[in-house]
C-alpha cells in the first residue's frame, strides 16, 4: 500500500504568501487515508541563509532530514505531499540509486544554481540540487545524472536553466505533447532507468484547471493528460516514489474547489 508523507514546508518558496503552503498541505492531508498518512512538522521559523544565496537554508536542511527519515522508515512507496517543490530533495535522496530516473512535471524547470537563481528560493533550485549541484547540505551526492531527467509541462525557464537543458540534451515534453500519453513513457524509457520518481508541481496545470498556485503560468497541461501520462508510465516502470507540491489555496473554500483535481493526481501516483 502507498504511504503518504505530508511535509508542510514553505521555506523554499519566494512567494509573499508562502505560508499558504501550510494550509494547502493540511487541506490535502484531510482527504488522505489517516492510517497511511504521516504528517511532518515544518520548523516554525523562517531559517537563515548562513551566508549562502539560498534563502532560509537552515530550515530547509532540517526538513530534508525529516523527510528523508520518514521515507526511509519503510520500503513501501511514499508519496510526499508538499509544501513547496523543495520537498523533493529529501524524497528523492531517500530512494536515489544509479537505476533511477526523475520525471519533473512542473511549469518551471527548477534548475537554477544558487548563483543563477533570480529569487534565492530553493524551490527553483531543487532539481539542479538533485543533479548534485548547489550548497553542500542541500544537494544529492552522488547526483542523478542529467541524462536520467525528463521535464514535462515545462514553460517557464530561466537563462541558466535553458543552458543546462541544452548542454545535457534533457528531454522536455511540452504541455500540449502530454496529450499523447506515450510521450512521457517513451522519454523515460529512453533514459535507460529501471525505476522512476515522479514529481508533480500543481502549477504544471493550466490556470483554468487549478486556482491555488502562487506561480501560475498560462498555457499549461490538462489534468486528464497528466493523469493518463503517469498511469501509462507506471504500466512500464515501477515507481520509486513521488512528490505532489505547491498547493497554496487562498482560503479553505478555495481549497475545496481544487481538491477534486488534486485527488485525481494523487490517485494516479498512489
Ligand atoms: N517550483 C516553482 N514554483 N518554481 C518557481 C521558480 C521561479 C524561478 N525560476 C526561480 O528560480 O525563482
UniProtKB/TrEMBL annotation:
Record-linked Pfam families: Arginase (PF00491)
Keywords for the protein's UniProt record, in alphabetical order: Hydrolase, Manganese, Metal-binding
EC number annotated for this UniProt entry: 3.5.3.1
GO molecular function: arginase activity
Keyword Translocase among UniProt keywords: no
Keyword Manganese among UniProt keywords: yes
Alphabetical list of PANTHER family matching this protein: ARGINASE (PTHR43782)
Family under the similarity heading: Belongs to the arginase family.
Name of the protein in question: Arginase
